[in-house]
């Protein structure tokens, strides 16, 4: 039995507006059934830097935009402190639909980490975004994004502070094989961490973003 993926829903021409429209019809995995909508990337179509997170959260699912919730606000602060600007950046997620479980009380939707099968099923969208945008630097925010592009054995903690390259993974466009890659924590990990460690975690995120900025060609 062939595992279904998003590949059959992706238009042949990979430009951001066409991809963003087509993603709403994606049925490459079952996550679309409960999500409000697919959340595609946001930013300039020729951005020099792409930031990749895990998946949209509750706020993003409702708004249809990536990184507009609490983690997004913290990321904005980190971007600013790293000496970067958000407007020229392209922000997206490895998985385009919000995966959640309902809370036992009330209507709150609780984030649930996508499975490896769901990440792989959705990955053709990320490959298409990379081909459309052709970033010179890719920042992988958290384990899900890192494993989506660097392989299932990749560990963020083992490669923090390093300038990496994308592997020869089937589906990664040849046009971005020379892009620099920085792996770091997801901003939500800062928010979820122990209160006495949040400042240090935030500073490490800023340092990694600063490294990514330094890797941009002059």
Strand content: 5-15%
CATH superfamily: Uracil-DNA glycosylase-like domain
Termini separation? 49 Å
Basic shape: globular
Number of contiguous helices: 8
Care to describe what's here?
This is Type-4 uracil-DNA glycosylase. Keywords: 4Fe-4S, DNA damage, DNA repair, Hydrolase, Iron, Iron-sulfur, Metal-binding. Residues 40-210 form the Uracil-DNA glycosylase-like domain. This protein is of the alpha/beta class and 218 residues long. It has one domain: Uracil-DNA Glycosylase, subunit E (3-Layer(aba) Sandwich). Helices cover 36% and strands 12% of the residues. It has helices spanning 16-22, 58-63, 70-81, 116-133, 143-150, 156-159, 187-192, 198-214, and strands at residues 49-53, 90-93, 100-102, 109-111, 137-141, 164-165, 180-184. A five-stranded mixed β-sheet has the order 2-1-5-7-6, sandwiched between helices. A two-stranded antiparallel ribbon has the order 3-4. A hairpin with a 6-residue loop joins strand 3 and strand 4 (109-111). The termini are far apart. The relative contact order is 0.17.
TL;DR of this structure?
By secondary structure, this protein is α/β, with parallel strands linked by helices.
Write the layout of secondary structure elements.
Blueprint: H1 16-22, E1 49-53, H2 58-63, H3 70-81, E2 90-93, E3 100-102, E4 109-111, H4 116-133, E5 137-141, H5 143-150, H6 156-159, E6 164-165, E7 180-184, H7 187-192, H8 198-214
Parallel strand pairs: 1-2, 1-5, 5-7
Antiparallel strand pairs: 3-4, 6-7
